[in-house]
């Protein structure tokens, strides 16, 4: 079952359970090796625009408070999932989470690599629909800029990166098994962009959710095995060197015939009136 509300409710509970069960974490070596799901370790220097969202007050310090992913698209602009900003996740409106930070340039959450940057403004897409999960994105404005080489360009509508079959990579610190096994170190997984027709078949509506091609994009493997999972939400899906998706939802993780569903970045650009000229300093249609 992948209704957004249930997922948002489940996340903090699962993270709390993991925090309480640290000694057991090492009791699942098979799960930890097997796989973001089906992935491999990656150094953040290979994907410097991948950031972690953190609140130690809310999620505890065992994994530096990481609860979602994000992606820098300009020095002071980070995109994430709207559902990561829900009160059911954060316990309060995001502006009231006083230790809410973006962690940038850090592979191992428990290292002191990179920087923890305060958030000056949170803008949740007013078109986000928590029932359907359409429009699942939010814009964070950072209090201090990231280096220009730590940002990634967004892929506009019509870019060949959206063509079905294109190889893409998803990044995150989320669950590696679907069983609540959150990791300390950044991981990546190779997946393929799927056709809207195929995705509509996978999620025709009902219990597993509805694929809406205007605002969503699917990626995965026909046989399953490689996917984003809980805790990866808001993080980047990259194809042909550009951002095409933000981790949003899916039925389980890595299941055959149940690809990961991503926020379609061309739709984010359209909503923000983002045309590349404003990319350098993060000005967008909402400023
Ligand atoms: C989640 O709950 C979630 N397999 C994110 C991505 C996927 C499933 C669930 C895709 O945040």
UniProtKB/TrEMBL annotation:
Pfam families: Trypsin. InterPro entries: Peptidase_S1, Peptidase_S1_PA, Peptidase_S1_PA_chymotrypsin, Peptidase_S1A, Trypsin_dom, TRYPSIN_HIS, TRYPSIN_SER. Keywords: Disulfide bond, Hydrolase, Protease, Serine protease, Signal. Residues 36-280 form the Peptidase S1 domain. The keyword Hydrolase applies. PROSITE patterns: TRYPSIN_DOM (PS50240), TRYPSIN_HIS (PS00134), TRYPSIN_SER (PS00135). It comes from the Bacteria. GO terms for molecular function: peptidase activity. The keyword Transit peptide does not apply. Coiled coil: none annotated. One of its GO terms (biological process) is proteolysis. Residues 1-27 form the signal peptide. PANTHER family: FI18310P1-RELATED (PTHR24276:SF98), POLYSERASE-RELATED (PTHR24276). Belongs to the peptidase S1 family. This is Serine protease. It comes from Streptomyces doebereineriae.
